[in-house]
## 1
Amino acid sequence: MSNRWKPDLKWSDVTPKPLWLNRRQIMTGAAALAAAPLAGPARAQLAAAPSQYSTDEAPNSLEDITAYNNFYEFGTGKEDPSRYADGLTIDPWSVVIDGLVDKPGTYDFADLVKDQPLEERIYRFRCVEAWSMIVPWVGFELAGLLNRVGVQPGAKFVAFETLVRPDEMPGQKSPFIEWPYREGLRLDEAMHPLTIMATGLYDAPIPRQNGAPIRLIVPWKYGFKSIKSIVRISLVDTMPPTTWNMLQPSEYGFYANVNPTVDHPRWSQASERRVGSGLFGGRQDTLMFNGYEAEVASLYAGQDLSVDY
Ligand SMILES: Nc1nc2c(c(=O)[nH]1)N[C@H]1C(S)=C(S)[C@@H](COP(=O)(O)O)O[C@H]1N2
Ligand SMILES: [Mo]
């Protein structure tokens, strides 16, 4: 295992251009205008088919995805991440993998991703605050990484942590969250093929405000589970503490599966507002497991999801 930073292998080299043209061709009007400037440089790279796991829905614009989101390390406003994330140093970057694994270590970003097959995954996204988007991520299955480092038999959960660097993350000067931001998955959730580590968005490396250089995406769960700018992945034998559950356990459970029949104590989860104007605007019914019920419902057989929320 080589953990050393290789100056000749930059993270942009291991983040491929996605497979975007086919989708762009079927879009019209505002969507096509929004996407056209992104597609040009990627043209030569278009080779493979989109992932079988992608939704057919047309993605939100890059502007929607990068200018309206949550990343509390940069402040609590929806525009704070796009305003303040520019100063985050993402190269070099390394991720500690520890706990119940055969090959623990500090993995340089480029080494971590270089053997993992990258795909474009166009996923539905739903925030617990009841807004939603369609996002074209580029990433690889977390299972591939976990298999590479070797999960030991006693491991039952995966815990994740975000970088702590208050000099570059002004939101961390406020102690309302006990930094680092933490998240976790049960091992079977982590090994599910829908669970990916994203390193790209549209045809470029993932922008800082969206969790550069590497973040989790779990599309059937509320957005807060999809932790950004990860620096530590630990295989553990007990359910790990998670940021929103630590802050307010009655409102945010460990599982956080998108579920229109289990309301947040302060608001309904039955519908959602699709961010964006024109084609993408409007309110719609929220789907069980965010539309991924066929793929993931079996993970929760026998569990009462009003208890395990
Ligand atoms: N480290 C970290 N990860 C985070 C958050 C955060 O504040 N800090 N916010 C979460 C929440 S609440 C949401 S809705 C998504 C939003 O970001 P995205 O649109 O880029 O997915 O990031 C999630 N991941
Ligand atoms: Mo969220």
Note: Confidence is low (pLDDT under 50) at residues 1-12, 15-49.
## 2
Amino acid sequence: MSNYKIPFNKPFITGNELEYIQDAVDYGKISGNGKYTQKIHRFFERQFGFKKCLLTTSCTDALEMAAILLDVEPGDEIIIPSYTFVSTANAFVLRGAVIRFVDSRKDHPGIDEDKIEELITEKTKAIVVVHYAGVACDMDKVMDIANRHNLFVVEDAAQAINSYYEHADGIRSPLGSIAHLGTFSFHETKNIIAGEGGMLTINDDRFAERAEIIWEKGTNRTAFFRGEVDKYGWVDIGSSFLPSELNAAFLYAQLMNLIRIQQKRMCIWNRYQKGLEGVCKRLGIRQPGIPGYATNNGHMYYLVCRNRRQRDELIAYLKERDVLSVFHYQPLHTSKFFQDRHDGRTLPYTDLYSHNLVRLPFYYELTVEEQDYIIDAINNFRRVEIQPPLPVAVARSVADQAV
Ligand SMILES: *Cc1c(COP(=O)(O)O)cnc(C)c1O
């Protein structure tokens, strides 16, 4: 728990979670793939048109399932943005893949779609894109590259529930439904939560049957329970990727409030965007933009400061006012684990977002008063502007002393 008057995140409990959990307990089956898991699969398949969904214990697990499903083998190359959470890449490293990291876009922390193709080699197997802040990557562009090179695509839609991509023809596809596979997270920092939880979406029928087997420890138990086979056994590799019904029951209560949660989050996002317009212009701070082909799902509100010093000062300034704002990813290509494995390319925009981006408090229960307090505080943030640069002579003498 945060000790700040305004924390960065606060998991929202809708009020029906315990009732559904009680029902799952009374129902007498609390292991995985029970009544609530199946309700959730049906909800997503109906609401968003995903061909097939499998609830998992986390998005990390869904990504690991994706890596197994794509038969990723040692030496296979996977193209992934560097500005993302560890799991996006780690899932593929676990299978021995070589990761080729891509820079972020100049205008958005998401993957620079124009820098994907130059990394494709004979060994490339898949492209993994991340819909950062729930805002779509240019999926027509990504799928076109993949189709031309015969590659698979995975959408890490961990942050992207209820968000859409608008194709050139104007038709909207929910994120997570466009690539061969998609992954979602219900971690307590996301819009819809289960404590820990996730989901794999399978949009290509070729993967449907095997996905269930990998999900159920490498057995065909799911088909057995449907009465499709008369006994079940070990038929492939897999793991225990399915969550307990207790988690599913909790998540179902959240999903029944999806619209309410999304409406509130959009109000919060729009209030930040409007309330900070003036000060951002004055201080050269960039507000988030939503490309024409993307929608906003109110997952996150971030600002991109002019430089690292301004960002760190803004975080410290808000901290003094009892508001917790936080930076985001450390670049994966220069991480302790990966730096010696990286091919040496510099990824300037990844570094830029790592240094300059700050995320503001964002949760369902953030009140208008609290939000206005944050907005007012930022509107009075001017310190970087007040500090004049050192006069040249002084700067020189400081430099001399340093030698
Ligand atoms: C949250 C997140 C994950 C990890 O999700 P878990 O459910 O915690 O495993 C992966 N990728 C991205 C982009 C995320 O935001």
Note: The mean pLDDT is 95.
